[in-house]
Amino acid sequence: CEQIIQHLNHKIPGVNVAELCQRIQTSGIEINLGDLAKIANIVSFLFSTAARNNLSTEELVATLGNAVNALPKHAVQVIRHVWNEQGKSISVSEDARNMATMGQFVDIKWKLGVAMSSDTCRSLKYPYVTVMLKVADPSGQITDKSFEMTIPQFKNFFKQFKEMAAVLETV
């Protein structure tokens, strides 16, 4: 809940659900990544909707009580506590709403590799670049995206990044 509040306040780019899942599993609680991602989406939607409608803590809890019968009492208590402590800090400007419809770039990593052979070709010696992007989607979940490029494709990719950097420096 706290990471979601931080994301909605634009203090962090998103919630790294994979890392959170690992921490929860290490503490002895069994949960899979897909279920945790769904929970994070629901809580993010809940908090952003409550902020957009300027709900007080009591209004939020009453609405949860009316709408969700299956929500455990301790979950409602956590939501109540976090919303009471930090809910009013969520800023819901028009710019923030428009920005929330897009993903946000978090990190990029790359590595150079050489394919030596395959089952259909004995001697490839083919260089390639693997790019791994970390992106926070609109709900705040951080996901990894990866792709491979040939050297000419990577040179074009690099050229485009240089052009973007030059444009950004003029702003």
TrEMBL record:
GO terms for molecular function: NF-kappaB binding. PROSITE patterns: COMM. Residues 104-171 form the COMM domain. It comes from the Eukaryota. InterPro entries: COMM, COMMD4/6/7/8. Transmembrane segments: none annotated. Belongs to the COMM domain-containing protein 6 family. Scaffold protein in the commander complex that is essential for endosomal recycling of transmembrane cargos; the commander complex is composed of the CCC subcomplex and the retriever subcomplex. May modulate activity of cullin-RING E3 ubiquitin ligase (CRL) complexes. Down-regulates activation of NF-kappa-B. Inhibits TNF-induced NFKB1 activation. This is COMM domain-containing protein 6. The lineage of its organism: Eukaryota, Metazoa, Chordata, Craniata, Vertebrata. The gene is Commd6.
